[in-house]
Design goal:
Helix content: 40-55%
Strand content: 5-15%
Largest sheet: 4 strands, antiparallel
Radius of gyration: 29 Å
Distance between the termini: 35 Å
Length: 588
């Protein structure tokens, strides 16, 4: 289906054409003055400059042409040249009815679906997920779901940090603590143990200790650098230890991501493309694009249009080792070989923008990607606690993501128990609390524009009123409760009614905007548009609920129509929260 704005825009464009003006002036948008009209066209103002006419003259002529249109119940030319429009109730009802019968509520598949790879998550092996990992996980997951809903093939890759200095640091510290482990015996030729010599708790303690010591102990740091070099060169015992590190860490990461309802198609790490680096580097040299600068191998990526200096892209460090630029470029080589993506999207901290400018330019200059491959950096801002300061634990450490979820879930559970829901078992209460906590966490993040820093206020984001995830879930639970009671009384759902009042029509306008919203959310990589849509729909549903006696309406046909309306809105809400990455409990 065409979006509702496109449909009514075509009506207005045809009216411009009949009045003797060009069709492109007929663009329609939702009115920012709902007290005056529902939709608005400002094309007469642009037409006034183009045709050297009074805008009111153009607006009046177009309005006259539109008076016979079945799409509008009100058409009005207003100074200084606006065309104010109200949708015909039956027309918008028919559009909403068509949405309910269509696959994906009328969102059409694109003529040329794209192959898209989304690089998001980016956790480092051996480190627990903390609050800093929330944004790349939930933003990337939502963009992935929106892109799929828009009709594209999308591959999500977690892109693990599993191959750099942290691995050497862990190996070095293990040797200090457990020097008798067989992995450190160069003469050992047998099979290594299947079980790792550490658990996740020990591993998560070892890494920060080793990392901290490297900052103050030069001898220790040199050993860690040597261990990293030997690991990457293929030292047998180190490779076996590294495999243990991966197994233990990735198992824990998958468990935590599952709790977040974040799913990756690929669990690729930097190590997976290590074997591609030599040929990639040689190709850069053969093409005369890579050269030595201060001992390092670099590719110049400056462009004439640059307003500030863009440093060269470092392909190999002065000691010949790979770095983040190297592995990101090699990963692009792999993705091009395996998927030939039309677009590669990177959901990364916005402070990494320069790095990706260098990588993207180098990839294009060296022919790693095709000229028409889209490389997009989606930079996100920081998530802070109350007062604008980073989230910390009580003892000043970085707050783990699992702990944040636990705290919110516990708070929601206490609220459910305080409400005295005797009809809800303890198991259901805990499950409901977990779902509500996830909605609070994800909606609290995604409702903000991704690029902006924001404050995560736990008390505000878990509130049952206002622009929050729980508010959406309470709205949906309320509708489900009405539907259950209606069904229990033997009621049958009727046809969608022609809206008879402003409250009903507001819901129709919201539903009619779904196709447009999906298109904008995908084009702008903007989950916050889905959030804004859901919040508006929730507000209008609650207004309708408070103003209308739904179950006590004596007219059976009216009552059946009301039920059809809220049931239709509920289905769209369910679809929309799925795009944000959370679900709604059956009741609250």
């Amino acid at each position: 289906m065409k979006s509702f704005l496109t449909l009514i825009g075509e009506e207005v464009a045809s009216a411009f054409e009949r009045a003797g003006y060009e069709r492109d002036l007929g663009r329609v948008g939702v009115s920012n003055r709902p007290d005056l009209c529902e939709y608005q066209c400002n094309g007469a103002m642009a037409g006034a400059k183009r045709y050297k006419k009074n805008p009111m003259e153009i607006a009046s002529a177009v309005a006259e042409e539109l008076k016979s249109s079945k799409a509008f119940s009100m058409v009005e030319a207003a100074a200084p040249g606006f065309i104010n429009l109200n949708a015909d109730p039956a027309y918008i009802r028919d559009y909403a009815a068509g949405m309910q019968k269509s696959e994906r509520f009328g969102v059409e598949k694109p003529e040329k679906p794209e192959m898209i790879v989304i690089d998001y998550g980016g956790p480092n092996v051996a480190k627990p997920l903390h609050v800093g990992h929330l944004r790349p996980a939930v933003i990337g997951e939502s963009i992935k779901r929106i892109a799929r809903y828009a009709g594209h093939t999308v591959i999500g890759d977690v892109h693990l940090g599993d191959w750099g200095m942290p691995m050497g640091q862990i190996i070095t510290e293990l040797q200090v603590r457990k020097p008798d482990l067989v992995y450190f015996d160069d003469t050992y030729e047998g099979d290594y143990p299947e079980e790792p010599p550490f658990d996740i708790s020990e591993l998560e303690e070892i890494y920060p200790h080793a990392s901290g010591r490297c900052k103050t102990d030069e001898e220790y740091k040199a050993k860690a650098l040597q261990a990293t070099k030997e690991l990457q060169a293929g030292r047998r015992g180190y490779r076996a230890l590294w495999q243990h590190i991966l197994k233990v860490s990735v198992t824990d990461l998958k468990r935590n991501y599952k709790r977040l309802d974040v799913d990756f198609d690929l669990w690729m790490g930097e190590s997976d493309v290590d074997d591609l680096i030599p040929a990639m580097v040689q190709d850069m040299k053969d093409k005369g694009l890579a050269h030595i600068s201060e001992g390092a191998l670099v590719v110049d990526v400056t462009e004439e249009s640059d307003k500030k200096e863009i440093p060269p892209c470092m392909v190999l460090k002065s000691d010949g080792a790979a770095n983040y630029e190297t592995t990101d470029l090699a990963t692009l080589v792999w993705r091009e070989r395996e998927y030939k993506p039309d677009k590669v999207l990177y959901v990364v901290d916005k402070r990494q923008e320069l790095h990706f400018v260098q990588v993207f330019r180098c990839a294009r200059k060296c022919g790693i990607v095709r000229d028409d491959t889209g490389l997009e950096f989606i930079g996100f801002g920081t998530m802070n606690g109350p007062g604008g300061k980073p989230f910390k634990t009580r003892d000043g450490g970085v707050l783990r993501l699992s702990q944040l979820l636990d705290d919110i879930a516990e708070s929601m559970y206490e609220r459910i128990k305080e409400a005295g829901r005797e009809d809800m078992s303890d198991e259901e209460a805990k499950e409901t609390a977990e779902m509500t906590a996830l909605a609070a966490l994800k909606y609290g993040d995604l409702s903000n524009q991704a690029s902006k820093d924001y404050i995560f206020d736990t008390e505000r984001f878990t509130a049952s009123e206002g622009d929050t995830g729980p508010y959406l879930l309470y709205t949906m639970a309320r509708i489900r409760s009405i539907l259950r009671k209606y069904e229990a009384e033997g009621g049958k759902q009727g046809e969608l009614p022609v809206p008879a009042d402003k409250a009903q029509k507001a819901i129709y306008m919201d539903m009619a905007g779904f196709v447009q919203m999906i298109g904008e959310a995908y084009a702008e990589r903007a989950p916050h548009r889905v959030c804004a849509y859901l919040y508006q729909l929730s507000n209008d549903l609650n207004s309708f609920y408070h103003e209308t006696k739904i179950l006590t309406e004596e007219d059976q046909e009216k009552r059946a129509g009301y039920i059809a309306l809220i049931a239709a809105a509920l289905r769209i809400m369910e679809e929309s929260i799925g795009l944000l990455g959370f679900k709604a409990p059956l009741r609250m």
